[in-house]
Amino acid sequence: MKTTVQLFLMCICGIVNTQGQTADKPLYRDPVHDGAADPTVIWNEQANKWYMFYTNRRANVDSLDTISWVHGTQIGIAESSNGGASWKYKGICNIDYRPTEEYSYWAPDVIENKGIYHMYLTYVPGIFSDWYHPRKIIHLTSTDLLSWKFESELKLASERCIDADVIRLPNGKWRLFYNNENDGKSIYYTDSDDLYHWPNKSKKAAKDRGEGPVTFKWKGKFWMICDSWDGLSVYSSTDLATWNKQAHNILKEPGKGIDDKVKGGHPDVVISNDKAYVFYFTHPGRVPSSKGIDTYETRRSSIQVAELYYNVEDQSIGCDRNKKASISLIPN
Question: How many CB atoms lie within 10 A of CB 312?
């Protein structure tokens, strides 16, 4: 937690702008492969910048077929010096886990605890032209958010698990949510005392299908937002175990902004000064007229950000993606 003096110094140094700046639209495009997806955002204490990690899909490689371009992926890094309003390319993660000659890194989740950064990453042992192959979630640690040391492979509900998300429980322990593809792409969870060992049997969190879960605490309750391929499904809970699904999805209806005229996918949420911001990605070229077409335009993706709002009357979450996002993230 930052002290008042630390926050004051950050403000006068330009790291925190309490008035907020209008976020870029789109927020970010990867300059290497133009396939940024699955964002996760964290404060880099050493660099005094916000870092965004993402799956770097190979959208602009023409020689790849309709499946393999989302394999062979590295984890890209973008950085922001103005509270998340604009981002620039930093590079890719140096990950020391490559047991197979060909591999794919997907959907990182990054958290910090006691000065150590932890990444829970989907590892696919190859580059494939179809979907039914093993995936596993691995645990990595880092002190600088650039180089990552392999710690373990998590033993979860099946041999096809992706999209980790970790949240701290009220009792100080940790809960990991993930997508179990072998159970109809359901969201499961398991617990740990220390982030390194996950001995508890996994349980199903929600009966509905979805992927890319993100969990967070806001407005006095816990929330889980999932990519349900029809916008983002929203659930609420008082105990992180029993989840109630709200009636409407967010980011379902196309927006009007640049690269935002399609459904939103695979989110992250950052809470700052009691405001909630959803980071998500879009495939701008996947409009109704492009159905069945596989080109660079339908493959490329962009990262976007929008502010969430809380409906007091029905205690639900909403999102107006067409409203310009004024953002100034403050590190906790």
Answer: 8
As a whole number of angstroms, the distance between CA 20 and CA 326 comes to 5
Closest CA to 240 of 198, 190, 196, 277: 190
Q: How many residues does the chain have?
A: 332
Per-residue pLDDT of 273-289, as tens digits, reads 999 999 999 999 999 99
Residue 167 lies in a domain: no
Distance from C-alpha of 85 to C-alpha of 25, rounded to nearest angstrom: 9
Where helices occur in the chain by DSSP H, the ranges are 4-12, 296-299
CATH number of the domain bearing residue 75:
2.115.10.20
Q: Which two tokens stand for residue 163?
A: 């999209």
**pLDDT given at position 207:** 82
**Number of domains the chain contains:** 1
Look at phi and psi of residue 279 and say left if phi exceeds 0, alpha if psi is from -120 to 50, else beta.
Answer: beta
Residue 233 domain boundaries? 4-159+208-327
* All residues at 6 or more sequence positions from 301 whose CB lies less than 8 Å from its CB, including other chains: 34, 35, 36, 37, 57, 59, 281, 282, 283, 284
As to burial, measured by CB atoms within 10 angstroms (0-12 exposed, 13-18 middle, 19+ buried), residue 4 is exposed
Q: Is residue 227 part of a domain?
A: yes
- Tokens 């927020």 locate to 27
Per-residue pLDDT reduced to its tens digit, 151-162 = 999 999 999 999
- Whole-angstrom distance, CA of residue 227 vs CA of residue 247: 15
- Please, which residues bridge with residue 209 across strands? 186
DSSP notation for 259-288: T-SS--EEEEEEEETTEEEEEEEE-TT--G
Model-level pTM?
A: 0.94
Q: d(Cα 327, Cα 173) in Å, to the nearest integer?
A: 31
Q: Is residue 85 part of a domain?
A: yes
Within-domain flag for 233: yes
